[in-house]
Amino acid sequence: MSEEKKEQEVQVKEEEKEEKIKKLEEEIENLRKKLEKTEEAAKKLSMLYQNLQKEFEDYKIRVRKEKEEAKEEGIVKIAKGFMEIVDNFEKALESAKTATDINALIKGVQMIHYQLVKFLKDHGIEKIETTGEFNPLEHEAVETVVSKEYKPNEIVKVIQTGYRYRGRVLRPAKVVVAIPPEEREEIT
């Protein structure tokens, strides 16, 4: 009986081993399937990433091209506006050859000046204010004059008009600035 029991125990152990092997084989098969799915998903993600990368490169090229086209359109628009002004200057110069009335010529030049200033304003370019106190952010003092008529640091005269575009100074106004008599003596 003891041998029979031993045989039964051996058989039970064999069955347990086979069952464990079967479970391990099933687990290996499940892991293999998961690995295949994971590899397939990784391959899809890699392809998606490559497609997105290509689309992004295409997008950057398209945006660069659109910016360049917009810049070109802006230049063409400005050039067309200047062409009208040049045409009017040419007409004024042509009429100046035969004009006897200087006032008509002056009026024509004033009209062209108005047209040019309006053109600049229409494109966001404005003259810098040059009355009142000197502002080093908008004005460049090219000369100082001793004055009792003007307050210290007040603009006396404009040498060259300054311009700004959307708040940004394109060119500072060149001005003459008043200083009190005692400062002038200290400078010299």
Structural overview:
This is Protein GrpE. Keywords: Chaperone, Coiled coil, Cytoplasm, Stress response. Pfam families: GrpE. Belongs to the GrpE family. It is a single chain. With 188 residues, this protein is α+β, with helices and mostly antiparallel strands. The chain has helices at residues 2-98, 102-122, 181-187; strands at residues 125-127, 139-146, 155-160, 163-165, 168-171, 173-179. It has two domains: 1-123, Alpha-Beta Complex (Hemagglutinin Ectodomain, Chain B), CATH 3.90.20; 125-188, Nucleotide Exchange Factor Grpe, Chain A, domain 2. The strands form two sheets. It has a three-stranded antiparallel β-sheet. Strands 2-6-3 form a three-stranded mixed β-sheet. Helix 1 packs antiparallel against helix 2. It is elongated and about 140 Å long. The N and C termini lie far apart (132 Å).
